[in-house]
Amino acid sequence: MVKKYPFIPYHLQTYSEDEKIKRSYEMYNFMNSRRSIRSFSDKPIPREVIENIVRTAGTAPSGANMQPWVFVIVSDSDLKRKIRLAAELEEKEFYDHKISNEWRQDLAPLGTSWEKPFLETAPQLIIVFQQKYRLDEKNIKRKNYYVIKSVGIAVGMLILAIHNAGLATLTHTPISMNFLRDLLGRPENEKAFVIMPVGYPKEDVEVPDLKRKPLSEILIWS
Ligand code: IYR
Fold first, then answer.
1. Where is 218: in which H helix or E strand?
2. With the C-alpha atoms ordered 41, 47, 53, 58, is the resulting torsion angle positive or negative?
């Protein structure tokens, strides 16, 4: 017999029309002020803040509620250095040889390069792993579902929680992140999904003056 979850009443918070409009504007303005940051100060982040950020990401929906994610926090300087060196090796190969001309042109306005000092300067790295499959109580391989979509949603919520805590981050994805499983001692069923340095922006940090697409380009009433 497959066990079912007990079903319990659910009460969604209700708001007046005006409140809904106000709240939706406030959320938009707040998220519109978020930018990816590539230069960090070394000011530490309280542990409880990191815990709550990860708790928030862990509320994301996932295929069959398998919650196929793990968030590894790295604060140790030696480990951060090892991660930086391994990531830069991948990135150098990418920027020097693997990148296509089209990709190079598309990246040029952002001013990124193979050098990733933020992997050492940010006080903490959150390394998100996806669990491609899971092992049940009898150590038998069981399927996870929609893993990339589920973890992508959780990372979106992580980014929102980081911004809400007054902290900055960026999504860093070296072409191959296989080195992270070994460096962090993660099991075979886990694959690194993204590296997220978290911290406070360095004083006087500047960001490229990017424009977001207008609503008319991204919203279609069909
Ligand atoms: N992973 C590389 C390259 C890179 C690719 C894209 I698409 C970006 O939006 C930004 C960077 C890097 O992290 O530099």
1. helix 215-218
2. positive
Find the 118 Cα to ligand 1 centroid distance in Å: 14
Q: Calculate the alpha carbon distances from 74 to 29, 106, 121, 162 in Å.
A: 31, 31, 12, 16
Q: Sorting pLDDT into bands at 50, 70 and 90, what band is 209? A: very high
| Predicted pLDDT of residue 3 | 83
Distance 172 CA to ligand 1 centre (A): 7
| Residue among 100, 173, 175, 210 whose CB has most ligand 1 atoms within 8 A, to mutate | 173
Nearest to 197 by CA among 58, 42, 92: 42
Atom of ligand 1 nearest to the CA of 175: 1
Cα–Cα distance for residue pair 195/55, rounded to 1 Å: 17
pLDDT, residue 138, reads: 94
Instruction: Give residue 50's identity as a one-letter amino acid code.
Output: I
From CA 186, how far away is CA 190, in angstroms rounded?
Answer: 7
Give the H or E element holding residue 70.
strand 69-74
Secondary structure (3-state) at 86: helix
What's the topology of domain 47-201? NADH Oxidase (3.40.109)
**Token pair of 123, please?**
């006080």
The stretch 183-205 carries a mean pLDDT of 97
